[in-house]
Amino acid sequence: MKIKVTSVFVNDQAKALKFYTEILGFVKKNDVSVGEYRWLTVVSPEQQEGTELLLEPNNNPAAKTYQEAIFKQGIPATAFFVEDIQKEYEKLKGLGVEFTMPPTKVTGSIIAVLNDSCGNLIQINQLL
């Protein structure tokens, strides 16, 4: 068994696609119309056949409640790994990304938390 697709709820799919591709550097993999919504996935440019991240609309009341609750509690919706967190942090700050936590050393890694502008906090990690 392997993970092929995982998702993050977003409050605006078009805005999310722009943020995840133009700011974070992911690549659009699928964009299929499903009624008023889209099956919209992105992948890492280094692993284009790897795990896809579904930018899933939060139109379901339970999804919206969940997304808003974990955001308010400061809990990241997902995590991504980088080789050089300080370099990534500086690049993203330069692009106007809001961070709720700057790079911080914790057991076994350095983490930072950013706001994806679509209703989520995202943790980035550098393993030590």
What is the topological layout?
Blueprint: E1 5-10, H1 13-23, E2 27-34, E3 37-43, E4 52-57, H2 61-72, E5 78-81, H3 85-94, E6 99-106, E7 109-115, E8 121-127
Parallel strand pairs: 1-4, 5-8
Antiparallel strand pairs: 2-3, 3-4, 6-7, 7-8
Provide a short characterization of the protein structure.
This protein has helices at residues 13-23, 61-72, 85-94, and strands at 5-10, 27-34, 37-43, 52-57, 78-81, 99-106, 109-115, 121-127. The chain is an alpha/beta fold and 128 residues long.
Characterization of this structure:
With 128 residues, this protein is of the alpha/beta class. The protein has a single domain (5-127), classed as 2,3-Dihydroxybiphenyl 1,2-Dioxygenase, domain 1. Helix content is 26%, strand content 41%. It has helices at 13-23, 61-72, 85-94, and strands at 5-10, 27-34, 37-43, 52-57, 78-81, 99-106, 109-115, 121-127. A four-stranded mixed beta sheet has the order 1-4-3-2. The protein has a four-stranded mixed beta sheet with strand order 5-8-7-6. It is globular, with a radius of gyration of 15 Å. The mean pLDDT is 97.
